[in-house]
Specification:
The chain is α+β, with helices and mostly antiparallel strands and 431 residues long. The protein is built from twelve helices and 17 strands. A hairpin with an 8-residue loop joins strand 5 and strand 6. Helix 2 (23-33) packs parallel to helix 8, helix 5 (192-208) packs antiparallel against helix 6 (214-235) and helix 5 (192-208) runs parallel beside helix 7.
Length: 431
């Protein structure tokens, strides 16, 4: 956990000053050792105190939560991961080219093994597959499978690890997928989360390899998207559509938007835009390295949110938004473990309704919470009455600077001791 120490006097003189932490080196250490890396902002970049107590800020609470999660998380040590494929398919490579952990084996005869010092439920491993010469062989009796005339492809992953109690365990998962000769079936069954994960990790490989660059990564993201859409138009019924009309597969409606967002993300965007009037880089070298560190191990449920964040409306929350709700007790299964049942019955906070994160959906008289998996941003419109935003936030200091055309101060804020503020804090805690 990296918590930069800053001098409050220096911060007051230059609020935009940022320390250089060399996140790239620290992240590489965490990558090789399969560790976690958390960057907690302090000073003027942090934000908000809790209940007006200067000694108890969101930074301190977040540090406690991160340490508690790391200590109580279910983890395995001395991990060995291996993926086996049926005849006709083989493992081409792991993604990115420098995955978390250490690769053992050349992968020519058999797929390479991935050694990890530790693994937790959030660990995600991406593998790129390819066809072997000769194609997929039907190893099963076709007459014994009703309604299936084409061969099946099978994948089996094995994870060997050591528990906290010292037990050596193996977890094996087997997946069988049907093949098809119709390209439309392939596009119909495409998974946007898996594709976005491979795109993100592939872009990082283009940055880190010899001769790679941010420009090359951005171009490859664009070319891959165009290639998928061009093949869909050429090999499906979409080829009968007018040439000037953009036709997208039903399962990949958001693929162009994702690729555009990925190109503009902090991982791949320009630090200083062309014809910029200010020389201040955004993102900084540390911010880019931090996002690349997490992009290297991104999972399908995280890849989309990193470039297309969640936006919640907190100005007009529903009655039960922000309340902790205990799930109803379902009929117990005699095969369910008691710990599993207890975990499923934990209270959860009902989140506010989500909105499309577009400037066209924002109202100057509303307040919104943006979650991009790295930080929370509270947007307060210019036309929000003072009594409305003061129901969520309270001003801790006198003479705080204010944004142009707004009555909301920039610094010295804390969560107010009101029902609305308590609900907002519960929502943040749940996220």
């Amino acid at each position: 956990v990296s918590v930069p120490s800053t001098d409050p006097k220096q911060l007051n003189k230059n609020p935009n000053m940022r320390e250089f932490l060399d996140v790239a080196t620290l992240g590489e250490l965490c990558r090789v050792t399969c560790g976690h890396f958390k960057w907690l902002r302090v000073g003027n970049e942090c934000g908000v105190a809790v209940n007006g107590n200067k000694n108890d800020s969101f930074t301190a609470e977040q540090l406690r939560e991160e340490l508690k999660r790391s200590a109580l998380a279910y983890t395995g040590s001395d991990v060995v991961f291996k993926l086996r494929c049926s005849t006709g398919v083989q493992v081409k490579s792991y993604s990115p080219s420098l995955p978390v952990g250490n690769l053992v084996g050349d992968g020519i005869v058999n797929s390479a093994e991935l050694e990890l010092s530790s693994m937790h439920p959030g660990t995600s491993i991406a593998v790129v597959l390819e066809h072997k010469i000769g194609g997929v062989v039907d190893t099963m009796n076709a007459n014994s499978r009703k309604g299936i005339d084409l061969p099946m492809v099978f994948f089996q992953s094995a994870v060997l690890y050591t528990t906290k109690t010292g037990q050596r365990r193996v977890r094996v998962s087997t997946l069988g997928l049907p093949t098809s000769k119709v390209p439309a079936d392939i596009f119909r069954s495409a998974n946007l989360g898996a594709i976005s994960t491979i795109f993100t990790r592939g872009a990082i490989s283009d940055v880190e390899r010899d001769g790679g660059s941010l420009r090359l990564a951005r171009e490859n993201v664009f070319n891959k998207c165009v290639s998928i859409l061009a093949n869909y138009r050429s090999h499906t019924t979409a080829r009968a559509s007018p040439s000037g009309q953009l036709i997208l597969p039903e399962s990949l409606q958001l693929l162009p938007l994702f690729c555009l967002s990925l190109r503009k993300s902090r991982m791949l965007r320009h630090s200083i835009p062309k014809n910029a009037t200010s020389a201040k880089p955004f993102p900084t070298a540390d911010e880019r390295a931090y996002h690349i560190f997490y992009g290297r191990m991104v999972s399908p449920n995280m890849s989309l949110q990193c470039v297309h964040p969640h936006l919640f409306q907190v100005s007009d929350m529903r009655t039960r938004d922000g309340d902790w709700i205990t799930p109803p007790v379902l009929q117990e299964n005699k095969f369910d473990d008691a710990n599993v049942i207890a975990a499923s019955m934990r209270p959860v906070c009902q989140l506010p309704k989500t909105m499309n994160p577009s400037i066209a959906c924002l109202d100057e008289s509303g307040m919104y919470l943006l979650d991009d998996r790295f930080s929370f941003y509270l947007f307060i419109g210019r036309d929000v009455p003072d009594e409305k935003w003061q129901d969520l936030l309270s001003v801790g200091g006198v003479g705080s600077s204010r944004a142009r055309g707004s009555s909301v101060p920039i610094g010295g804020l804390s969560l107010a001791d009101t029902d609305s503020a308590h609900k907002l804090r519960s929502v943040i805690h749940q996220l």
